[in-house]
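Lab manual, section 2.4: Encoding a predicted structure.

Procedure: take the sequence of the chain (113 residues), apply the prediction step described in section 2.3, and record the output as structure tokens. A sample record is shown.
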Amino acid sequence: MNLNRSLGPLSGRWTAIARTTLRAAAAVTVPLDLGFSDEVVVFLNGHPVYEGRNGWESRYPGYLGFVQRGYEAIYLTLTPGRNELVLAVTDDMRFGWGFSARIAPDAPFDVMR
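Recorded output:
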């Protein structure tokens, strides 16, 4: 999701919320491949399970902070029934921002819209 393209030009610090519901038949742990810029907090069922920074120069001088799925692997422990997954993605006001997230298509659960 290219948030620059989706939300248009913004000034100041902004946070976008992406939300989906995952349904599991039984308790299961699934990997979430995640790429993001500039900052993200991942919530599962209302609880933060990951927080990270991947913006320009966030790791060392000259680091570009590209959005690339697979940059991080987060393991989500789903409970039986509905599970709410929320990504809070924040722009650090330097360059572009966005995210890419994917759970393997053969994971043992259904994604509900």
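Check your result against the sample. The chain is about 5% helix and 50% strand.
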